[in-house]
Specification:
By secondary structure, the protein is α+β, with helices and mostly antiparallel strands. Helix content is 28%, strand content 16%. It has 11 helices and 13 strands. The protein starts with 12 loop residues before the first strand and ends with a helix. 39% of the residues are buried.
Amino acid sequence: HPSDLPEFSSSPIWLLGMVFLPPTGQTTFEEGELPPHVAEFIENFSSLLWFSYRKDFPPIGSSSITSDIGWGCMLRTGQMMLAQALVRHLLGKGWRPSPRDKLSPFSVYRQIVRWFSDSPLPQHPYSIHNIVRKNRANARMYGSVSQDRIEEWYAPTKIAKVLQCLVRRHLGRTLSVYVAEDGMLYLDKIIEGCDTIRSKPGNQEANQNELHPDDGDVHPPSPSPTMDPNDGWRSLIIVVPVRLGVESLNPVYVETIQEFFRLPQSIGILGGRPKKSFYFVGYQDESMLYLDPHFVHASVRPDREFSPESYHCQVPLKMPIVSIDPTLAFCFYCHDRKDFETLAAHLASSSRREKVIHVAVTRPSYLPPLDDLDDDDEQDDCVPDAMADLDIADDILIL
């Protein structure tokens, strides 16, 4: 674990859409005493699920690889982002684990942790084994033989695409993942993935009417006055890979990054430094706050009792915003249709000159068809059981 707290100023601290304000009037504190807003931030930060390097887990496929040290940091970063989305999806924003949640083997919190446990079994759909399995299947489907290997460093787009496939097979009835192209959010494609009523065959006309294709403006879809906002609408994870500079981050985007963390739908940034991935979760002043996956823990047996302490970090790390790699991905979670409408309206109306995320009504027909990376029925040696039969979403109902 990281050992020493970084220095904090008296400025507000932002964490995934939440702000922690310094007390008014009080400027001095006793030695060793944290200012109240820093202490409250640390309490919330330490509730985030932290996935780091592990050793001595079951071999991946038929290989002898039993650790992801040196190559798995982006996979762990992607796991942290997805875990935060699942916590919001199943437990709500602002939820923090209680001692009972951590100890009870039947809590939803423990179920989420088990889904990420390092095991090739299908009961752990987001394990490093199943992430590697799906990536290798994708590579073979599209003839990328040179990328069909285990110890591979993933870019933000690649891990997002793999997680998109795994979520679709596991929680696809209630959760959709949209991976943006070139910083564009195409409303028709998002509706296609989220709206289980209007996206059905025969409802294309309703879809087009809802998108207002003739008035020239972008309008996020509006729900029917008689429709429950959650009825027929899947929750949504949006991942927007972008490049904000050539060899280093262009400083003009610092305020854009800060603004992102102030949005209530924010679930972090996948990024880091060259060949070193971090999960950025907030900022103070001109510094990013993040979780670092480059700490090694022993593998945990998901079929046995285990302490969840290695899945939480008490010490945030800091780095200057301008020092991060320009290749990164903004991640959002929208719990319901109204949540998505609010986000889409904000992004569409932004007048910031350094705009990096754009909203369009429809995806242009001249663009190549989207890859459907979930159509592979082949089985490789990473998962002994058929992933096509994987469907444990109902586990939540019996916990």
